[in-house]
Amino acid sequence: MLPMDHVIALSAILFTIGVLGVATRRNLIVMLMSIELMLNAANLAFVGFNRIWSQLEGVPAIDGQIFVLMVIAVAAAEVAVGLGILLSMFRNRDSVNVEEVNLLKW
Amino acid sequence: MVDVGTESDLLRWIPLLPLLVAAYHGISIGFLRRPTPPRVAAVVSCAAVLLAFVLSCIAFRDLLALPANSRVLVDDVYTWIGAGIGSSALSAEVSFQLDPLSAVMILIVTFVGSMIHIYSIGYMEDDHRDDKGIQRFFCYLNLFTFAMLVLVLGDNLVLMFLGWEGVGLCSYLLIGFWYSDSFNAYCGSKAFIVNRIGDFGFLIGVFLLFGALSEIGHPAVSFAGIQEHFDGIVEMTIAVPAWMPFGPEWRLVNVIGLCFFLGACGKSAQIPLYIWLPDAMAGPTPVSALIHAATMVTAGVYMVCRLSFLYAAAPEASAVIAWTGAITALVAATIAMAQNDIKKVLAYSTVSQLGYMFLAAGCGGYAAAIFHLGTHAFFKALLFLGAGAVILAMHHEQDMQKMGGLWRQLRLTRWVFLVGVCAIAGFPPLSGFFSKDEILIAARASHVPGHNWLYGIGLATAGMTAFYMFRLWYLTFCGECRAVADVRNHIKDPNGFVLNPLRVLAFFSVFAGFAGLPQVWGDIISIEESNSLANFLTPVLAVGELHAIEHSQELWMASWAVAAALAGTGLAWLSYLRKPRIPGWLAANLSGPYRALFNKYYIDELYDVVIVRPIVALSDRVLYRIVDARWIDGIGVNGTAHGIRAFAANGLKYAQSGLTQSYVFFMIVGAVAIVSYLLR
Predict the structure, then answer these.
(1) Per-residue model confidence (pLDDT) at position B2
(2) pLDDT digits (tens, 9 = 90+) for A65-74
(3) Which of B140-144, B208-212, B477-481 is least confident?
(4) Between A and B, how many residue pairs show a Cβ–Cβ distance under 8 A?
(5) How many helical (H) and strand (E) elements, i.e. helices and strands, does chain B have?
(6) Whole-angstrom distance, CA of residue B607 vs CA of residue B275
(7) pLDDT band at residue B3 using 50, 70 and 90 as cut-offs
(8) Average model confidence (pLDDT) for chain B?
(9) Chain B within 8 Å of A86 (Cβ-Cβ)?
(10) Same domain, yes or no: B471 and B402
């Protein structure tokens, strides 16, 4: 069976990639995708920890899985809003580069 | 746990009924802005208080059905304040307790209260100053009844304090009821502020008592709990600085007793805090009768009797009470002799009679104090309501020098008023005679230092009481009418709402004394255990150590009291009816003392110079202009705002760069900081 620390390590790696993606990329679409990556890294961690929990307690637990469903629902909503912002930005600026959207500042 | 007594769900309704009606009035004029018709509002209010009286009677009957030594009914509603654990836990319940002492009080409060409510219908009828005036009046009156009932029924000090503050608030609201006249508003504020000084003492007393009880591991605020563990704190002392007199250690019970007595001084108008009561007469006359004569001002006496176990263990504090009471009685009586406003005379008379009650309580005659409280409630309510009837008949003229000769026109009022005057003057067998006699005997028999002097002062005051009351009577009802012709031709007895309560109160002013008939009189007409009131109260009141007084001596003392009353009456008759030139001659030839009396010993002016003005100056020049305006507003409020604005304008704004990437960067830094803090 797959060792659990591998699952957690994979989750950590995915999350780090996501963070770096959001921090370094200028393309809004890629930034959104990176956010999705982070969310799904968290999902993976939830599932992994849920399994660890079940083994420790000796009874099957489902709390982690339920949380994953919640996260998926929230992520779907977030993508809808994010793509909405992205579309209106593209219509106004003909671009998806976030560096070109800097009107709101001091 | 303390033995709590028999459960009774009835008790909570006694204060709750007036509260519900007060809330109804408040909502209807305050929120809905749709006043109920005045008559309806008044009848609802009267019904609530009458019903509370009926419930009180039922509760009283239940109480009498219990064996004499365990006469306590309790109604535990809910825990109001629960805080702390272990030896400092505070648990204040909303819990009502009916024992003989509070039973006497609620009967007086609800009975006299309902009489005065009914009277108010007639008295306030011609008040057209504003359209919702009547309902506002009855709202406050019911709220007052609620607060007073909470005060006497509360089974702990915290709940008692709620009622204590509540009656103070209603007193303030009702003194300033006709607020469009700024003098009335001033009088209301004065009453409230002076009472605050007393309340401060009350609170300190509660804190000290609770602290001491916590120290021995039995925190309690309920009277039963305090009494149970009281033995543990009797011997406690507190250290005081070397320059304080009677040092270096004071007994704690004396300090607590004096703190509570300061509260009582404020509420019950004793020296040095009596100055608010005469000014409280600015309120409508039924208010003066209910709040400033019959019920609220007796709260201090009730409180001292409620804590009688404490005062019995604090002889020094008791001596202070006795002497304060005696001096107040004397001073107020002398002032009353020279006042011309009919309500002012009655107001000083109230101060004087309250002094009597404290004299009794300080001497250990707690039952005598409560007895006088009850009879005084009847005859002073009667006198005030009678004065109200006179004032109505005179078209709101209160100066006795413009009255006179009302004997012919006020055919009912004259009789009930005369009954009140005779009762307060102490003529047998009216109620005032017996209760005053009990107080004088208590003073004579007590161990208070100078107790014979106290007796002498009491006797002198009794004579002066007779003098100023008959002076009032002669000036108002006898001689020639000194009113202007326009008023003179329209004087007549007021309507039935006003007169019927007067009849009832007159009946009780005559016969209430027999509830507490001293044994010496009981022996004469061969009734055993004639002092039923004192016997009823015995289980809840402490008994002070008294000198033995023989019955023959008691009879002599009663004769002396009657002689003093007769002397006062005779003097009044001589100088105001027989030879009306005497007062003028005295005023001219003894102008110094006369003016001192007429101007109330200049006490108000003295307080103004010594206390009020320095405080106002300090508040204005230092606290307002420097502390508040410069420090709190200048540095604290505006300084913070200016500082933050400067900081934001010169530094913080650059954080908002408009670069999404930098926001993301700060977010990540923040998240990492939080996570690393949590995982530390």
Answers:
(1) 45
(2) 999 999 999 9
(3) B477-481
(4) 31
(5) 29, 5
(6) 9
(7) low
(8) 89
(9) no
(10) yes
Provide the domain limits for residue B556: 314-584
How many domains in chain B? 2
Mean pLDDT of B63-67: 89
Residues B346 and B444 in one domain: yes
Give B349-380 as a DSSP string: HHHHHHHHHHHHHHTT-HHHHHHHHHHHHHHH
Would the pLDDT of B68 be above 50?
yes
Which of B524, B552, B584 is at the close of a domain? B584
Residues B502, B650: one domain?
Answer: no
Same domain, B553 and B669: no
For position A87, what pLDDT does the model report? 93
* Same domain for B619 and B558: no
Its pTM stands at 0.82
User: Which chain A residues have a beta carbon less than 8 Å from that of B666?
Assistant: none
As a CATH number, domain A4-95 is 1.10.287.3510
Q: Are residues B545 and B614 in the same domain?
A: no
Those residues whose C-beta lies under 8 Å from the C-beta of residue B422, and which sit 6 or more positions away, are: B430, B432
Residue A101: its chain B contacts at CB < 8 A?
Answer: 658, 660
A98·B668 Cβ contact <8 A: no
pLDDT, greater one: B246 or B458: B458
Cβ neighbours of B653 in A, within 8 Å: 106
Summarised one tens digit per residue, pLDDT across range B577-627 is 888 888 888 888 888 888 888 888 888 899 999 999 999 999 999 999 999
Is 80 exceeded by the pLDDT of residue B628? yes
Would an 8 Å CB–CB cutoff place B657 in contact with chain A? yes
Q: Which amino acid is at B421?
A: V
B654 inside 8 A of chain A by CB? yes
Residue finishing a domain among B553, B584, B615: B584
Is the distance from CB of B424 to CB of B383 less than 8 angstroms?
yes
The answer to whether residues B285 and B234 touch, using CB atoms and an 8 Å cutoff, is no
Residues B516 and B413 in one domain: yes
Q: Residue B483 and residue B341: Cα distance in Å, rounded?
A: 14
B668 contacts chain A (CB < 8 A): yes
Q: Which of B656, B658, B664 sits opposite A22 (nearest CB)?
A: B664
Chain B partners within 8 Å of A38 (Cβ): none
Based on DSSP, count helices (H) and strands (E) in chain A, helices before strands.
3, 0
In this structure, the answer to whether residues B511 and B556 fall within a common structural domain is yes
Is the CB of B660 less than 8 angstroms away from the CB of A19? no
Cβ-Cβ contacts under 8 Å, B658 against chain A: 101-105
Interface probe with A: pick from B653, B657, B661, B666, most Cβ of A within 10 Å: B661
